[in-house]
Amino acid sequence: MAGLDYVLYEEPTGYAIFKVKLQQDEVGSRLREVQDAANDLALFSKLVELVSFAPFKGAAQALENANEISEGLVSDYLKSVLELAIPKGSSKNQINLAISDKALGPSIKEIFPYIDCISNEVAQDLIRGIRVWGSKLLKGLHEGDLERAQLGLGHAYSRAKVKFSVQKNDNHIIQAIALLDQLDKDINTYSMRVKEWYGWHFPELAKIVPDNYTYAKLVLFIKDKASLTDESLHDVAALMNDDAGVAQRVIDAARISMGQDISEQDMDNVLTFAKRTVSISDYRKSLFKYLTDKMHTVAPNLSELIGEVVGARLISHAGSLTNLSKQAASTVQILGAEKALFRALKTKGNTPKYGLIYHSSFIGKAAPKNKGRISRYLANKCSIASRIDNYSDEPNNIFGQILKKQVEERLEFYDTGKSPMKNADAVKEALALGGGDLVAPAKEEKKEKSEKKEKKDKKEKKDKKDKKEKKDKKDKKSKKRKADDDSSDKKDKKKKKKSKD
């Protein structure tokens, strides 16, 4: 293998091109003496020589170049540096360039076919040595400049990587739906514990008030059942949506209750636990409202089509809205039923018809024989809605409304046979509902095309007319010339005839 000719070193302050003066081979580079040369400036300066150093104009340009290098792309600035610093070679005379990142090699080779990019152990050793003595080898730099530049670029690069759009941020949706599921389990467990614990004192209350949240609030209000009187009727009814009949039953049951009396200390513990259950239930309501608002911001079409909770579950299961938008409709259909799918494949049984989308109201409305068909159709529309939400700059719920209408019409088609809306008509209706922002550009584009066509037609007509006029003039001239030639021939013949006579 031929030796290295040049080294590309990406500094946080700019690009540096070094020429390799002394060649090394891969075997010799492993020798202790050669490796020690990287730690000695006098010895290392004999290996490489600075050819060109192109500093960045500012932090923005440095960040832009760092992003492109991390993706294996050659920026315009790096292209100009390589063009100026490295002499042009040929297909026979290839130039070997040492680089630190292998992913950058194909991009450089595509632009400069005469450059072979090498990222072997020898190349890494040279780049390591340049990194150690960078402040000495690069002229015009002061002590600490490189460190400050590295720190600033590192912070800017990290910020750019973790930066997110508020409109597209689906991480909070994934966390919120996971917390909502956990809270549902916890609230159910806590409510059962409150009923069991307070049931020793007032067992009849659980049958009269089945709702867990209302039960916990009543426990906090009643405390000792002996304190309930007819005067408490209004307050108890207020806790039960102004239902005076049920409130009266609670008061009557408290008078004849078979429950045991409990001490003040035990009652304090029961009330503390009931208070905690109520607070968690209140937080669950606020979290659900937050999730609903977030879904309408991030995925309005998916929320409109299938509901906020089911849509959030789909996003959470896929990992992100982007991942969900990349899934095929057949995958979206069975998302959440992976165990059943693999079990069916293993046992050669029937594969599942639906996964998480089973919780949609459309599946519940469908007849048993049509559940599989509507789930397939709904998954198709969910896939379209997620793509619109993910790739639109400012998504709205217009397409979601039309897609929902299509699913409802498909359900009606299964029941009555009435023909549903076609996709082309659905898109036209959605664009019409979207207002001028979506329709106007198409009209303007159509108008521009028609104007261009008219200009082109006019120009072609004019050219044809000019050509015809030129041709007519040419024909007239040729006819005139021919007539003149004929007349001259006749005169010559007459003269010859006279001369003979």
From TrEMBL:
Q: Which UniProt keywords apply?
A: Nucleus, Ribonucleoprotein, Ribosome biogenesis
Q: Does the keyword Nucleotide-binding apply?
A: no
Q: Where is this region: Disordered?
A: 438-501
Checking InterPro entries in the record gives: Nop56/Nop58, NOP58/56_N, Nop_C, Nop_dom, Nop_dom_sf, NOSIC
Listed GO MF terms:
snoRNA binding
Please list the residue ranges that the record marks as compositionally biased, kind Basic residues.
455-481, 492-501
The Swiss-Prot or TrEMBL record describes its family as follows: Belongs to the NOP5/NOP56 family.
Q: What does this protein do?
A: Required for 60S ribosomal subunit synthesis.
Q: What is this protein called?
A: Nucleolar protein 56
What organism is recorded for this protein? Ambrosiozyma monospora
